[in-house]
Amino acid sequence: MLCFLTESNDKRWEGICYKNLGTVLQSLGEYDKAEEYHQKALLITKEIGEKKDEASCYRNLGTVFQSLGEYVKAEEHLQKALLIAREIGDKTNAASCYENLGTVFQSLGDYVKAEEYLQKALLIRKEIGDKEGEATDDENLGTVFQSLDKNVKAKEYHLKALLIRKEIRDKKGEASSYGNLGTVFQSLGEYVKAEEYHQKALVIRKEIGDKKGEASDLTET
Fold first, then answer.
1. Which helix (H) or strand (E) holds 150?
2. pTM to 2 decimals?
3. I need a surface site. Which of 80, 147, 183, 209 has the fewest CB within 10 A?
4. Three-state SS sequence of 53-117
5. What domains are there in the chain, each with its CATH number?
6. Angle at CA 103, nearest 5°, toward 99 and 105?
7. Which tens digits make up the pLDDT trace of 163-212?
8. Residues 6+ apart with CB under 8 A from 4
9. CA separation (Å) from 122 to 32, 85, 132, 160, 205?
């Protein structure tokens, strides 16, 4: 397919194919290969002036570098993606960039910046009605507050995430929220509640066949 598109000189579709291949390789954990394909896609999008695709390529590269632990490069690419997304008014991509930057700063232990970027992402998610993204940002903020030892605030955000995930019937996310709340209650010294929430997470993990999550919940109960 890629060869055919290259021969037909359809540059935009060639770039999309490279981007899709990069995403697949990224999902498989082949980050070096993923970077190579995302870079090829980026060159084409810049050549043909496709700003929205260019922003997506920068963001994809940012997440690849984040997975490789190259946080300076990750931030650099995500900031470029964010700049373009804001310039063209692409709110969905901007929210994703803010979220990714928040998790980059979280990984670096810069929780003040992490909170700042995640709050910006959350604001846009609410504005555009992206419930799944809103729940993710609530959860990320919850873990940031846990890292800051602000467990009451962490509980507030994890509960928000839980409510949304129940509303949109996201079973895997619901289990994650219960698990996070269990950990928060444990930190607050509310051990009965902690066990209750970890058990709720465990029940869902078994139901959906999430073996990795199930093992994690078993260690907490």
1. none
2. 0.88
3. 209
4. HHHHHHHHHHHHHHHCCCHHHHHHHHHHHHHHHHHHCCHHHHHHHHHHHHHHHHHCCCHHHHHHH
5. 1-110 (1.25.40.10), 131-221 (1.25.40.10)
6. 115
7. 999 999 999 999 999 999 999 999 999 999 999 999 999 999 999 887 66
8. none
9. 31, 16, 11, 12, 27
Residue type, 214: E
- Across the chain, the runs of DSSP E, i.e. the strands, are none
Contact 93, 56 (CB under 8 A): yes
Rounded to whole angstroms, the Cα distance separating 14 from 42 reads 11
Is-contact 78 62, C-beta < 8 A? yes
Reported as a single tens digit per residue, the pLDDT across 44-97 is 999 999 999 999 999 999 999 999 999 999 999 999 999 999 999 999 999 999
